[in-house]
Amino acid sequence: MKNKKVLFIIHRIYFNDQPKLGGVDRIIDFLKKNNETTTIEHPFEKINHPSVFTSKVKKLTHNSVLKPPLIWFEEFVFNVYWILKNKNVYDLAVASDPLNYFSCLILKLLKKVNKTQFHSTDYSPKRFNNLLLDIFYHFLYNLSVKNADIITVTSTRMHKVVQEKLDKVNIHKVFLLPNSPYFSFIPKTNINKKNPLDLVMLIGRWGDQINTENIINGLKLLKKDYPNIRLNIIGHTDNSYIKLFKENKLDKNIILYGSLPYDKAMEKMSNCYIGITSYSETNSYVHFADSLKIREYAAAGLPTVCDSVYGTSEEVIDYESGDVYNTSLEMYEKIKKLIKDFKLYKEKSDNAIKWAQRMDKQKLLNNLYEKYD
What we know:
The chain has 373 residues and is of the alpha/beta class. It is built from 13 helices and 16 strands. The protein has an 8-stranded mixed beta sheet. Strands 13-12-11-14-15-16 form a 6-stranded parallel beta sheet, with helices on both faces. The chain has a two-stranded antiparallel sheet with strand order 2-3.
């Protein structure tokens, strides 16, 4: 896709007052290279950040005093108002959630947009703990699926859900576009130079989204067999969890690197032997979500030992690029098996690379937008 006008309407998550980048940002970066883009960003939950309209010629901001759900209606008004004031007619409008897609649909009806893309990053049968909000959410989600010209989903579980909502005539407009990295951006380290006792966990922050109990119990079991086992944690870890590691006598086995620049984090991760996840199903939508961490492990050639919370775990099984556990005992057994059996490890590592190459974000985006040029 080249020389087009593209509009993005997204919600932005902030962590420690810094914008958190996600899969939709890779779409933005990809289409920015050869197209003129306009972006509308609304803060997700953090109302102390403004909504921002950014085009080629201007930048506008708006600070709201409202909270959800009232702020959602205000955001819709500003989406439509800002674009109607703008003289552009957009070839494509992309939204990463049902609420913002509704704005894209209205703008299409108003002839300000030619085609729309709904990029579904999560889904849940019960998205909110509120019946009315859930009804509203599903109304908007189904509306998005039925009306979008292009639908991209980040996980195989979500892919099945969306296909079931469409008739056979429209299934062709659904594409799997996971939160995978650019394969060439992830460093690869010769597995013969790695220490088999170096495990790694990539995290944004250590909080209730991580099943801490599984990690502690699994690491304790591994420590009995391998006193020098090391879990390298890359990301922010609060002092309360550091204290917990010490209380369980694991402080010598857990290496904390804190938050690192992306290239440094990937370099450190690629030097490790096995990638670990331990997600906790604190929110219902994570069952259908996609784990970038698992895909980054695979792109570096690391077999993953992961839980079954995120939909990505099903692909780990399908592509035989690691193992899935349900308990800390299973975690221990599957990690130990990979440490002991180099032939098995090599097979899983090779499969991880092949899977990551197939899901290379650059390749997927090229294939997707070539069809709609």
